[in-house]
From TrEMBL:
PANTHER family: LATE EMBRYOGENESIS ABUNDANT PROTEIN (LEA) FAMILY PROTEIN, STRESS-INDUCED PROTEIN KIN2-LIKE. It comes from the Eukaryota. It comes from Tripterygium wilfordii. This is Stress-induced protein KIN2-like. Residues 1-24, 41-57 have a biased composition (Low complexity). Residues 1-66 are annotated as: Disordered.
Length: 66
């Protein structure tokens, strides 16, 4: 392998490594976004359950839950 081929090979290797790093970073960002979405959904479900419980408690106290 001459110097020109070696330089080209090394440049190709560097490009491949950079692309892989970029791909890994995108995967991490995607995973973080998915995790945040799931956390928000869970929080929303908890709030909905609490609101339903509060509504049921009011209905029970005023005798509407028969």
């Amino acid at each position: 392998m001459n110097d020109s081929q070696s330089a080209g090979f090394q440049a190709g290797q560097a490009k491949g490594q950079a692309q892989e790093k970029g791909s890994q970073m995108m995967d991490k960002a995607s995973n973080a976004a998915q995790s945040a979405k799931e956390s928000c959904q869970e929080a929303g479900q908890q709030m909905q359950a609490k609101a339903q419980g509060a509504a049921d408690a009011v209905k029970n106290s005023v005798g509407m839950n028969k």
